[in-house]
Design a protein that fits this description.
The chain is mostly beta strands. It has two helices and 23 strands. A 16-stranded antiparallel barrel has the order 1-2-3-6-7-8-9-12-13-16-17-18-19-21-22-23. A three-stranded mixed beta sheet has the order 15-14-20, with no helix packed on it. About 30% of the residues are buried.
């Protein structure tokens, strides 16, 4: 996935933000974590730290250090705080079509970018994002658990504040756990240079922040099928309202005869979006090794449909070390208003975007995690490395004239490295 200067709340950021958490969760149980699992009431503190480095070829680079502190109290309640900082640099696709000539563009902040002939136009950016997540878990009796939490993140042109809560109940001799929850986010989008009027080249409508509201609900169940097999299913519903347009993205309007770009105009997306997904999880214990699999189906009212299949196999080595290979396949259809470009003279559609994250695409991720201990050094260490290859479907891209020979959706290669450390005190 590609980043836009404003798109920190995008699917890419969510995926990157959880990468470190996935790694830390896969490490061996520390004293604090083991006490929670065994219902112990001994006060303990768990510290998890990680650093994520993500880089796309000739595009975006992200550095994300994260620290999570979890405190288990004597009454079995727990409190956690997660601090994160993202430093982002590089180039993001503007949404404009590639051309047979060199292109030079100027961003709202005055940055000048030159794109060689035949390549996808990009815009340079640099930003820093800080985030804080808090969570509180309260067991009630032996079968019921309630959780609540808050979230705050801030960057130059985007701010997000949120709350979430859930409740879990163990039934059938604790072989089945039922969970329900929800959350709400208050976001503000404040584009550099102001918010442009859609389908214009650069007419500024206002310089005030734009509001965005996100409501979500979740239900799930986890079943102990056998003493080795754990199976879970979750369903989520999310509703977004407000400013959902990417303020820096443009579309190319092409001459219908020559194929030359006549102008680049700002995109426009609907002001609402309803998302739904179903996630099936499975964990099977082979005495020493564990196989984790999950399948996720997603659909929304923008007509995007996607399927993700994920496989992890944790193989225990000697002396507290482990190796966990990982493979993931993802595919999605295009949004109903996705366009590679527009033709000059045609009536403008109600909505249109050439953001490749909304196009039909496929991706393959391969990687592995290695967990180990260092002699005479407290805690557990982890190293996770992954490679992602993404490619788009260009069968519906038919630019006229000389632009017909150019690749409208070039493949993307990216690599990530996560270093993790956990300790129980």
């Amino acid at each position: 996935m590609q980043l836009t200067p404003q798109g920190r709340g995008s699917a890419l950021r969510q995926r990157l933000s959880t990468a470190a958490c996935v790694l830390l969760a896969s490490t061996a149980a520390s004293p604090a974590r083991a006490q929670v699992a065994n219902g112990g009431a001994t006060p303990a503190t768990q510290i998890d730290a990680s650093t994520l480095v993500y880089s796309e070829r000739q595009r975006t680079t992200i550095y994300e250090p994260t620290v999570r502190v979890t405190r288990l109290f004597a009454n079995r309640q727990s409190f956690s705080a997660t601090f994160g900082v993202d430093a982002m640099t590089g180039a993001s696709p503007t949404g404009a079509a590639p051309r047979q000539i060199t292109q030079t563009t100027t961003s709202a902040s005055g940055t000048v970018t030159t794109t060689p002939a035949g390549e996808l136009p990009t815009r340079d950016f640099r930003d820093v994002r800080g985030s804080l997540d808090l969570g509180w878990t309260v067991p009630v009796g032996t079968l019921f658990t309630g959780t609540t939490g808050g979230h705050l993140s801030k960057e130059r042109d985007y701010q997000s504040t949120g709350w979430n809560g859930s409740a879990s109940l163990d039934v059938f001799h604790r072989r089945l756990t039922l969970t329900a929850g929800g959350g709400f986010n208050w976001d503000r989008v404040d584009p550099v240079g102001g918010t442009a009027v859609p389908f214009t080249e650069n007419v500024i409508a206002n310089t005030s922040p734009n509001d965005k509201r996100v409501s979500s609900a979740m239900v799930g169940a986890t079943q102990v099928v056998t003493r080795r097999w754990l199976l879970g299913v979750n369903g989520t519903w999310t509703r977004e309202n407000g400013y959902l347009t990417e303020p820096y993205k443009v579309l190319s309007e092409l001459d219908p005869v020559t194929g030359l770009t006549t102008r680049e105009i700002r995109e426009r997306r609907p002001g609402t979006r309803t998302r739904r997904d179903v996630l099936l999880n499975s964990a099977y214990d082979f005495d020493r090794d564990v196989l984790y699999t999950n399948a996720r189906y997603y659909w929304d009212d923008w007509r995007i449909r996607s399927m993700a299949l994920d496989f992890r196999y944790r193989h225990e080595l000697s002396d507290g070390t482990f190796l966990q290979p990982h493979a993931r396949f993802y595919g999605q259809t295009a949004a109903s208003f996705y366009r590679f470009n527009l033709l000059a003279g045609d009536p403008l559609p109600p909505f249109a975007s050439s953001d490749q994250r909304l196009g039909a695409l496929r991706s393959l991720t391969l990687g592995a995690t290695y967990g180990f201990r260092v002699p005479r050094t407290p805690g557990e260490f982890s190293v996770r490395a992954e490679w992602l290859h993404q490619w788009g479907d260009t069968r519906n891209a038919h630019p006229p004239g000389i632009e017909a020979t150019l690749n409208q959706f070039p493949p993307l290669d990216a690599g990530s490295l996560v270093l993790g450390w956990s300790i129980g005190l």
